[in-house]
Design goal:
83 residues; Ribbon-helix-helix protein CopG domain-containing protein
Length: 83
Amino acid sequence: MSETKVVQTEVDMEVYRTLKAVASAEKKPLKEIIREILRDYAEKKKKKLLEEVEKDPIWEAVGLLETNEEDASERDDWGVPEW
């Protein structure tokens, strides 16, 4: 089972009545309807965020660094500062 987090917020009465009506029509608890709405919203936003990240020009630079060492990317100490 996945980890969950309880969240709490307020909604205006019109939104509440609409959500209650949807829950009643679908014969589901109100909190299940709200979970579905939040899940769908989060998935939609996550997809959009990932698309924006993929457009970032930094990804065009990945792999452009040249070194004289053939195994530089496989070394554990490459790019790690000595503290």
